[in-house]
Amino acid sequence: MLIKMGDWKCKIIFLETLCNDEHIIERNIRLKIQQSPDYAEQPDFEAGLQDFKSRLANYEKVYEPVEEGSYIKMIDMVSGHGGQIQVNNISGYLPGRIVFFLVNTHLTPRPILLTRHGESRDNVRGRIGGDTVLSDAGEIYAKKLADFVEKRLKSEKAASIWTSTLQRTIITASPIIGFPKIQWRALDEINAGVCDGMTYEEIKKNMPEEYEARRKDKLRYRYPRGESYLDVIQRLEPVIIELERQRAPVVVISHQAVLRALYAYFADRPLKEIPHIEVPLHTIIEIQMGVTGVQEKRYKLMD
């Protein structure tokens, strides 16, 4: 029916997930009962449990596994350990990337901490881009961040710190000890091209057409000889896949545009909102990923 509806105008790929682990099934059922509006009025948890299990048994009677067309089967892969993936009639760049992405995802609960670097000297001057060192306030934040990370992740021996290759993020990470640090060029700030080092007022005065084009469509606007938000999103793909693979906490110290894109991915925010997401200085956004979805906490360490 779906293939007929598509009428060959789009490629249809079926994704089937199969779980045979009774412990995981039981856990998922219990989570479902706690969260589903179907059982909001049911005070007896055990009665709800039996009702859901009987519902599941009815589903199993009529369920038909996917056996035709293009499909991906993920069998007992929910834990991220073992299991298998079956691929049938999958070809092309994007379907191949989907398979690669699915192979690397799992539901192991772990936090991801996102933060901008401490205030830089260019931040104080209102200049975009650049590669300056931290201001006095930025240096204080770096120490506060180190204290926070060391307390928050003291029992997480496998945690890691990811920064961009720009010195303001590397300096911000430097007081943090006890965890490996990895530099990613893909985490560098959006390339402002010929506008690098300018203030927005200078761009408005000297390049009014560019200023207006950016104001009208911040998502797609590309700085002359620089990047757009869409360019940043594209270069973040390997970072996102590596974040999905991680089973230990990760602290990402990066830049405003980059963190907006990463946050939007995990929080499932639409593309058009990305350039306007609030990611203030000296604030940690903790994203907790697990079987119940994504939860968020924000810690403001300085005014």
Automatic annotation (TrEMBL):
Listed GO cellular component terms? cytosol
Q: Which residues form the 6-phosphofructo-2-kinase domain?
A: 8-109
For this UniProt record, give its keywords in alphabetical order, as a comma-separated list.
Answer: ATP-binding, Nucleotide-binding
- What GO terms are given for molecular function? 6-phosphofructo-2-kinase activity; ATP binding; fructose-2,6-bisphosphate 2-phosphatase activity
- What's a BP term from Gene Ontology annotated to this protein? fructose 2,6-bisphosphate metabolic process
- CDD domains hit by this protein: HP_PGM_like (cd07067)
The residues the record assigns to binding substrate are: R116, H117, G118, E119, S120, R121, D122, N123, R168
Q: What is this protein called?
A: 6-phosphofructo-2-kinase/fructose-2, 6-bisphosphatase
Organism, as annotated: Populus alba x Populus x berolinensis
Starting at the broadest rank, the lineage of the source organism is: Eukaryota, Viridiplantae, Streptophyta, Embryophyta, Tracheophyta
